[in-house]
Amino acid sequence: MQYTTDVRIIRIMCTGRIDPTMVAGAFIEGADGIMAVGCHFGDCHYISGNYQAKVKIELATRALEYVGLNPARVAFNQCSSAEGERFVNVITGFNRTISEMGPLGMSDRFPRDELTERLETARTALDKEKLRWVVGKFTEFQGKGNKYGEKFTEHEMWRTLDTIVMDELATHDILKEMRKGAVSVKELSAKLDIAPPDALKYVLALQRRGLAALASVEGESPKYRMIDTAAAAAA
């Protein structure tokens, strides 16, 4: 098999071993594109590994897109060990797509330095318990259902997960700004491109969790500060 030398292959036992934080970390370290290639559904030696991989890759893609990465830089594909020609075609096609997009930061919403900083926020959020729990329940809720026996379609699961991803990333963006000093909802809204009502919602939620508190009031604008760096880092 012959394919471009621009591609670096990393072999793992199963695509199900891929963690969403690995995808974010690879871009932070300078990768321009990442594609996971696993076995076909129904052929996984670990039964559901490739199903789990698809969900994890999709979660990482959505989270990274939220912080500014072009989602075309991440891909999930399938190929058996007997499909050498298909593998070469898949790799070559993806490499062509990435080459046309250019290096990280060129076809994305932010230049490389700013994008890398935002990718760090995404990696932090992807490493937290809430998103991991939802991913773990993804296939279970589709098959067995929840504790009430209710089953959910893939579309319903992603609609819920998209909301959680957005909330988690916005929360970590706000905490990052609060680490720099007291800030108002208006300032957070402008800096992070979050609608003022949503920014206020996130700030009040952080207050309820004991991670933020009122610092001062300037004119008619309350300013909030982070009150526990260690707790916020673990949030």
Structure description:
There is one protein chain. The mean pLDDT is 90. The protein contains nine helices and five strands, in the order H-E-H-E-H-H-H-H-E-H-H-E-E-H. Strands 3-5-4 form a three-stranded antiparallel β-sheet. It has a two-stranded parallel ribbon with strand order 1-2. It has 235 residues and is mainly α. 30% of the residues are buried.
Question: Could you outline the blueprint of secondary structure elements for this entry?
Answer:
Layout: H1 20-28, E1 34-38, H2 49-66, E2 74-78, H3 84-101, H4 112-126, H5 129-143, H6 154-180, E3 183-184, H7 185-192, H8 196-208, E4 212-218, E5 221-226, H9 229-234
Parallel strand pairs: 1-2
Antiparallel strand pairs: 3-5, 4-5
Helix pairs in contact: 1-2, 1-4, 2-5, 2-6, 4-6, 5-6, 6-8, 7-8
